[in-house]
């Protein structure tokens, strides 16, 4: 799934897609499927006329395209209602407003990283679920890693206060490095690359255990929890 998302985002950039609210609101499920490179239709023989083919909808992939369309339109709707052009403008304006309120406190006592996470979760309430909160945290951490050198607005002094955002793939890396042991039931699901439901007790136990291991590893070093998490996520890219 990650490779599909990356492919689609790069394709949009190459084709000049701006991610502006007006563009997100006009996306069709067919445009999404075409851009992200997965089919939602296939040709099949006509049930009654020999030699004639008709289009048949591939239901699971069409549902995926519709889900992506709903999420992107929800983002576009919120951006439009906030009178911003893109989510990027919303993020920068949110940080600038906090900075301009008290420039000195911004880099010492304010909590810009947590402020941005809260702003994302509050404003994009159509996506306000536990998974989205984790994604908001991940986005803020990524902005910190990639932007803080070029733009001091993103040099969040409180980045270490954000909790780690564990997921099954991160748990699998820790297990592979023999840094954690899970109950046999959970361990087998990790090995089988099974789907973990967030509401499932076993999933919650796995995520809590993963967070505790990351925190413990960080306590043995001068690194923050986020730096430790980032290290293991880099291993995911080369696995």
Features:
two-stranded antiparallel sheet, 12 helices, about 240 residues, mainly alpha
Describe the structure.
- By secondary structure, this protein is mostly helical.
- It has helices spanning 2-14, 21-25, 29-36, 59-81, 87-101, 103-106, 112-123, 130-147, 168-176, 184-191, 201-219, 225-238; strands spanning 41-45, 53-57.
- The chain is built from 12 helices and 2 strands, in the order αααββααααααααα.
- Strand 1 (41-45) and strand 2 (53-57) form a beta hairpin.
- Helix 3 packs across helix 4 (59-81), helix 7 crosses helix 8 (130-147) and helix 9 (168-176) packs across helix 12.
- The longest helix is centred in the N-terminal third of the chain and has 23 residues, at 59-81.
- The two termini are 16 Å apart.
- The mean pLDDT is 81.
Topology:
Elements: H1 2-14, H2 21-25, H3 29-36, E1 41-45, E2 53-57, H4 59-81, H5 87-101, H6 103-106, H7 112-123, H8 130-147, H9 168-176, H10 184-191, H11 201-219, H12 225-238
Antiparallel strand pairs: 1-2
Helix pairs in contact: 3-4, 5-7, 7-8, 9-11, 9-12, 11-12
Order of helices and strands: HHHEEHHHHHHHHH
Strand order of the largest sheet: 1-2
What would you report as the Rg, rounded to the nearest angstrom? 21 Å
Contiguous uncertain segments of 5+ residues:
none
What's the average pLDDT? Answer: 81
Helix fraction? 55-70%
SS content category: mainly alpha
Q: Sum up the overall morphology in one term.
A: flat
Cα distance, first to last residue? Answer: 16 Å
Number of helices: 12
